[in-house]
Amino acid sequence: VAGVPTASIRDDAVTLAKLAAGTDGELITWDASGDPAAVAVGTSTHVLTSNGAGAAPTFQAAAAGGAWNIIDTEVASTSASVILTGMDSTYACYVVKCSAVRVSTDNSALHFQIGNSGGILTGSDYSYALLKCGPPANNPLAAGNVDAFEFVPITASTIGNAATEGVSATIEINTALDTNAQISMLFKSYAIDSAQEPFFQTGGSTYTATAGQVTQCKLFPHLGTFTTGRFTLWGLAHA
Question: In this predicted structure, what is the pLDDT of residue 65?
Answer without folding.
Answer: 57
